[in-house]
Write a structure and sequence with these properties.
heterodimer; A: alpha/beta; Rossmann fold; 2 domains; five-stranded mixed sheet; two-stranded parallel ribbon; 50% helix; elongated; B: alpha+beta; Alpha-Beta Plaits; two-stranded antiparallel sheet; 4 strands; 22% helix; 13% strand; globular
């Protein structure tokens, strides 16, 4: 791992002057023996370059698991710069990637057996796709990184292979103008990098298409939940307080009993929207994520109501049903940010329609629920 | 992508036929096969598949393609509405 002082990267680094990066990136030292993915260095006309290996160790797996849950995600970076993989020479291909360590790990694993250069851009620890959208995986950074690593002295060709999903941030013709290297867009997925190279840098149509299979959707669900912990916590506090309101002004017993049921419904709604909906995404036969989530939430709520049918009165049952559908619908709508096929125009259109309905359902559920305490 | 269609009739991607030189970059960078190039001209095959990532417009050397790019992310759009700024989200992972 890289020693990093978050937010303090502009402090002078001993021995090497680095312009202020503003993004909190690690300093560019040549060799960092604490990085367990490095196993030496190779000599080049531009000086030594650290050599990465393709093995994924326990530390990498643990790190990946942690960032999937949002732990230390902003600091999960490799130093930007050039790395050697295998024993590359002046004719070896240059694979450009992001400095998010998860991304870097996937590439060095999938490129196992290749002799290649890996050029890690400073994307501030963000993956290629999102960084391209933000412009940090961008034309200027490519040109700057090529210059700073003195790549032109290290390789004899003038070609960079970029991941296709970096294209929203990079103008290939501008890169050529800016540093003399031409950009070849490689496959979307790094696991296709070897077939792509073996085919003479030709991508098949399948390599060019984004897909979103079950496993890819599933690994994105923990972060959805982590991001909701804080608002969910505050909502739970509010629900416990509301639950105590009744004919006796405030009852601690009611706060606990009715509050627990409401918080359980909240949790159910979040699970329906953040896990069930993403997993079942292509099979829920509507397009709007809010409707997908509303349906999933409704079904989960109906099951819960059936299960507790002896305990719940009608108004509480209806309130839980509506509330879970509303919560699930809102949470599911947020998953649009994790998918590789929703357009901003589409999401905006969907939100303009869905938000009033979600708010209406939530208010109705609240009225039924609080009102139910007075009319039983 | 089967089962992954999103909203129809909203994508902002446009192609100015006269400016197109048929270089094929749009077809190459588009992750959803929106473009196809034939007889030295690109055309839009499936506008509804567009997710407005902006890769085509960015890589079009003659600026023949226009699209309003952005993040298709509800949290970002909500943030943009609330703060009156450009939608952006700390997406990653």
């Amino acid at each position: 791992m890289i020693e990093e002082k978050n937010g303090a990267c502009c402090a002078p680094t001993p021995g090497k002057t680095i312009p202020c990066c503003g993004g909190g990136s690690p300093p560019e030292t040549i060799l960092r023996y604490e990085d367990t993915f490095l196993d030496g260095q190779v000599g080049t006309p531009a000086g030594p370059v650290p050599r990465a290996h393709s093995r994924i160790g326990v530390r990498d797996l643990l790190g990946r698991w942690k960032v999937r849950w949002g732990i230390g995600r902003d600091r999960y970076r490799v130093a930007p710069g050039l790395y050697a993989l295998g024993a590359p020479d002046g004719s070896a291909p240059v694979l450009v990637t992001a400095n998010y360590k998860l991304t870097f790990d996937v590439l060095r694993r999938d490129a196992a057996g290749l002799d290649a250069w890996i050029l890690a851009l400073d994307t501030r620890g963000i993956n290629v796709w999102c960084a391209a959208g933000e412009g940090t995986f961008g034309t200027e950074e490519v040109i700057r990184r090529v210059a700073r690593t003195r790549l032109a002295e290290i390789v004899s060709h003038r070609r960079l292979i970029l991941p296709q999903l970096g294209a929203p941030g990079v103008a290939a013709h501008e890169v050529r103008k800016g540093c003399g290297f031409s950009v070849v867009y490689g496959p979307v997925r790094s696991r296709d990098i070897r077939p792509f190279l073996h085919a003479g840098m030709k991508a098949s149509p399948e390599m060019r298409r984004v897909v979103f299979p079950m496993l890819d959707r599933l690994v994105l669900t923990p972060i959805e939940i982590t991001n909701l912990l804080r608002p969910a916590g505050w909502s739970a506090v509010a629900l416990f307080l509301l639950a105590g309101i009744g004919p006796g002004i405030f009852s601690l017993e009611a706060a606990w009993q009715r509050g627990s049921a409401a918080v359980a419904a909240l949790a159910g709604g979040i699970l329906a929207g953040a896990v069930v909906t993403p997993v079942l995404l292509p099979w829920i036969p509507v397009r709007a994520f809010s409707v997908k989530g509303g349906l999933a939430g409704g079904v989960v709520a109906a099951c819960a109501v059936m299960w507790r049918r002896g305990v719940l009165d009608a108004s509480t049952a209806l309130a839980l049903l509506l509330a879970m559908a509303a919560v699930s619908s809102f949470v599911a709508m947020n998953f649009t940010g994790a998918t590789p096929f929703t357009s901003p125009s589409g999401v905006e259109k969907e939100m303009r329609r869905a938000l009033p309905v979600q708010a209406g359902l939530a208010v109705l559920a609240g009225l039924l629920w609080v009102g139910g305490a007075f009319f039983r | 992508m089967n089962g992954f269609q999103y909203m129809d009739g909203v994508a902002t991607v446009r192609l100015a036929d006269a400016a197109c030189i048929g270089c094929g970059m749009c077809e190459e960078v588009c992750p959803h096969g929106v473009f196809a190039v034939a007889e030295r001209k690109a055309r839009i095959l499936d506008r509804n598949a567009c997710m407005e990532c902006g890769a085509c417009a960015m890589n079009c050397p003659t600026k023949a393609i226009s699209v309003t790019p952005g993040v298709g992310c509800a949290a970002a759009i909500l943030n943009g509405w609330l703060t009156g700024s450009k939608p952006s989200c700390g997406c990653g992972g």
